[in-house]
Amino acid sequence: MNVIEIKDLVKKYDDTIAVDNINLSIEEGEIYGILGPNGAGKSTIISLICSLLHPSIGEIKILGEDIKKKSLKVKRHIGLVPQNLAVYKDFTAYENVKFFGELYGLRGKVLEDAIDEALEFTGLSDVRKKKAKEYSGGMLRRLNIACAIVHNPKILIMDEPTVGIDPQSRNNIMQAVKKLNKKGVTIIYTTHYMEEAESLCTKVAIIDKGKIIVEGTKEELKNIVSDKKILNIGVDDIYKVNIEKLRNIEGVIDISIDDNSVIITSSKDVNNLTKILKEISDESLKINDLGFKEITLETVFLSLTGKKLRN
Ligand code: ADP
Questions:
Q1: Domains of the chain by start residue, with CATH
Q2: How far is the CA of 153 from the centre of ligand 1 (A)?
Q3: CA 18 / ligand 1 centre spacing (Å)
Q4: Cα(86)–Cα(97) distance, rounded to whole angstroms?
Q5: From the CB of 52, is ligand 1 less than 6 Å away?
Q6: Which positions fall inside the ABC transporter domain (predicted)?
Q7: Closest residue (by CA) to atom 21 of ligand 1?
Q8: Per-residue pLDDT tens for 106-164?
Q9: Exposed e or buried b for every residue in 169-206, given b needs 16+ CB within 10 A?
Q10: Is 16 in the pocket of ligand 1 (CB under 6 A)?
């Protein structure tokens, strides 16, 4: 069953088209990654799904219901972990989670059990009586998640939940996502860290400038570039590289620059390595690094857009 169906979705802010005609179906049980650089439109898509913004054009159905008509009914099934922390620093962890549980109409023993479970799940039971202002950044992120899951949602939407936190807390959050998914929760996870999408997501949509560039399982996405090779050449003076000449070499599809490296996407079956290296040495450049990039979601993005995900 599709838990989310998005049709011809457009969102404009004055002159900016933040979401540009997106179509998307998310099946029950997926950990669905929305991957894209800053400004790609990820947060806007999330806000539209959660009815925090209204589309300029298009339709969103959640659990089969049009959210324009049944916004309140479907909101009960969604948990949102927003990018900006939504916790009250002067409240304890317990009070924060209780506040959110009450918002969703939980009361009495059901509420208390739900708070216990959410705090236990995010590893905060022992510090439940501490005020949030005494928490570390990673603990605050976990509390943000506890608040979003207290009402036992069917769909959990996480907007860049690991930005700016230490590796241990990031790991902790990623484990929690996997555990929740095992319990049957469908997860939508936006990130610009491709390693997270690689390790977590069952399906990924890569977006750029408000459009979906490509969508599928990680294997499907990597197959798109299986007929290409991506060469990484580190040089001593990147400004001397004659990009136009390199671009004219047979088989070369795209060229980008990353610090002191030239990254060349080329057809796999054209044997052009000697020509490429000769062209670079003709410019009296010293090559100090040379290798093929492993095919990852980052290289898929790079080869489709000529850009790095992290800018
Ligand atoms: P992401 O979450 O991928 O970083 P956003 O959805 O925040 O991207 O932004 C998509 C585009 O919409 C960007 O160009 C951004 O500058 C623009 N944008 C986002 N929010 C607003 C707003 N409230 N008013 C005007 N432009 C906005």
A1: 2-217 (3.40.50.300), 227-294 (3.30.70.100)
A2: 27
A3: 6
A4: 11
A5: no
A6: 4-234
A7: 13
A8: 999 999 999 999 999 999 999 999 999 999 999 999 999 999 999 999 999 999 998 88
A9: bbebbbebbeebbeeebbbbbbbbbbebbbebbebbbb
A10: yes
CA of 54 to the centre of ligand 1 (A): 14
Q: Is the CB of 309 under 6 A from ligand 1?
A: no
Task: Decide whether any atom of ligand 1 lies within 6 Å of the 22 Cβ.
Answer: no
Q: Locate the ligand 1 atom nearest the alpha carbon of residue 47 and give its number.
A: 6
Whole-number Å distance, alpha carbon 34 to ligand 1 midpoint, is: 15
* N residues, the chain: 311
